[in-house]
């Protein structure tokens, strides 16, 4: 009963305590937010990059090979995110979350998403085939990137010596869910909020062709855009 009482006390304390919030100017880390009801608020564009069909990978191939696939994908995704001025905030198995801030946040995030698509097609897949000659003829890793823009509420969650930041806000959830909208070669999905903030350089090609196709996300009655374009590295 003592342990149950401790849990009840902890939960009661969390629910009763008022929040201490402040506006953020940069992506926080765990050292800048207290473990109690302390939070930072900011507006950002959230990017989720997710490797597709990982269950198929782990059932068909040896773990050593699958781990190399994960490492290659996450390595190029993270390098591109940072090169496009994003901040990596979390890893979850074979996917990574990042946040972009500032006036160019949605434009930079869209460029990063399209560049990740380019890197998978022209860097990662050719390298895997060059290094593993016995791969099936139809083998190619696929992925999807989701983007959304919203206000974010960032708090520290967990317990002493085992905690991380939780990102509360529509963008964090929508970006993650957009990764599941697999449809052929359309590997980049963004909300209308992101599309409206982007500049023209990532909306149309140099010769005037639209890079995005409007769709309706029926599960949430949201207007979204998809793209099968890529961004040169």
- Report, as a whole number of angstroms, the end-to-end distance: 59 Å
Segments where pLDDT lies below 50 for 5+ residues? none
**Mean model confidence by pLDDT:** 94
CATH architecture: 2-Layer Sandwich
CATH class categorisation: Alpha Beta
Radius of gyration: 20 Å
Strand-pairing-aware structural class: alpha+beta
Q: Per DSSP, what share of the residues sits in E-state strands of 2 or more residues?
A: 25-35%
Which sheet architecture does the biggest sheet show?
Answer: 9 strands, mixed
CATH topology: Alpha-Beta Plaits
- Silhouette: globular
CATH homologous superfamily classification: Nucleotide cyclase, GGDEF domain
Count of distinct strands: 9
What's the number of structural domains? 1
Count of discrete alpha- or pi-helical segments spanning 4 or more residues: 6
Give the SSE string: HEEHHEEHEEHEHEE
How helical, in percent, are the residues?
A: 25-40%
């Amino acid at each position: 009963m003592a342990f149950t009482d401790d849990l009840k006390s902890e939960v009661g304390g969390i629910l009763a305590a008022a929040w201490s919030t402040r506006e953020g100017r940069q992506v926080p880390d765990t050292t800048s937010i207290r473990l109690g009801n302390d939070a930072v608020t900011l507006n950002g564009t959230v990017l989720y990059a997710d490797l597709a069909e990982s269950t198929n990978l782990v059932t068909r191939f040896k773990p050593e090979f699958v781990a190399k696939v994960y490492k290659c994908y996450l390595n190029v995704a993270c390098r591109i995110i940072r090169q496009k001025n994003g901040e990596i905030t979390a890893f979850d198995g074979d996917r990574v979350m990042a946040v972009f801030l500032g006036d160019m946040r949605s434009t930079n995030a869209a460029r990063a998403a399209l560049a990740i698509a380019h890197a998978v097609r022209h860097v990662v897949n050719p390298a895997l085939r060059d290094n593993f000659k016995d791969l099936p003829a139809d083998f190619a890793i696929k992925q999807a990137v989701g983007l959304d823009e919203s206000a974010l509420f960032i708090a520290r969650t967990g317990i002493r010596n085992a905690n991380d930041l939780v990102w509360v806000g529509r963008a964090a959830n929508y970006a993650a869910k957009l990764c599941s909208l697999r449809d052929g070669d359309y590997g980049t999905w963004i909300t209308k909020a992101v599309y409206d903030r982007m500049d023209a350089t990532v909306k149309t090609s140099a010769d005037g062709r639209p890079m995005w196709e409007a769709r309706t996300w029926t599960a949430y009655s949201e207007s979204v855009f998809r793209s099968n374009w890529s961004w040169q590295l």
